[in-house]
């Protein structure tokens, strides 16, 4: 027979943060111990799809179902060069492309665009070494 134990602890999470939650289980005799962890984010942009073709990078930002952001901003950085594109949210995605990019490797930074049109303080997602041919 399975024993079901339910414990609820409510904590307040800050917006625009990455979290790791760790849960440990064990019996009173110390013979059985399991620890599990998972990572999650409170950024509005939850994931992205990237495509890169000759001189162009296209991004689809996917938002959480409770997102309040009005869009996403992508920044491609290579040495001292930063190329920027800002795309409005349509339901739960934003999509757009940055064109006329020189060939090379770029670091891609994705920011939430908040409802007051400012960027989240830190990037929601960072992808290093995205190649543009």
What's the shape?
elongated
Based on CA atoms alone, the radius of gyration comes out at 20 Å
Order of helices and strands: EEEEEEEEE
Physical arrangement of strands within the biggest beta sheet: 6-5-8-9
Please report the distance between the alpha carbons of the first and last residues: 59 Å
Main sheet record: 4 strands, antiparallel
Nearest-integer average pLDDT: 90
Show unreliable segments. none
Derived from helix and strand composition plus strand pairing, the structural class reads: mainly beta
Note the beta-strand portion: over 45%
Number of helices: 0
User: Count of DSSP E strands?
Assistant: 9
**Helix content class:** under 10%
Description:
The structure is a single chain. The chain is mainly beta and 133 residues long. It has strands spanning 18-26, 33-41, 45-53, 56-63, 71-78, 81-88, 93-98, 104-113, 125-132. 0% of the residues lie in helices and 56% in strands. It has a four-stranded antiparallel β-sheet with strand order 6-5-8-9, with no helix packed on it. The termini are far apart. The mean pLDDT is 90.
């Amino acid at each position: 027979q399975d024993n079901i134990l339910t414990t609820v602890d409510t904590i307040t999470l800050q917006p625009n943060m990455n979290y790791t939650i760790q849960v440990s289980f064990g019996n009173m005799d110390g013979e059985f111990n399991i620890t599990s962890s998972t990572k999650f984010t409170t950024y509005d942009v939850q994931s992205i799809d990237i495509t890169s073709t000759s001189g162009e990078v296209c991004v689809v930002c996917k938002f959480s179902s409770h997102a309040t952001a009005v869009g996403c901003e992508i920044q491609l950085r290579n040495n001292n060069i930063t190329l920027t594109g800002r795309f409005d949210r349509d339901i739960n995605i934003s999509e757009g492309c940055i064109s006329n990019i020189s060939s090379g490797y770029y670091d891609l930074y994705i920011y939430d665009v908040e409802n007051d049109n400012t960027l989240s303080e830190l990037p929601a997602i960072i992808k290093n070494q995205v190649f543009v041919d």
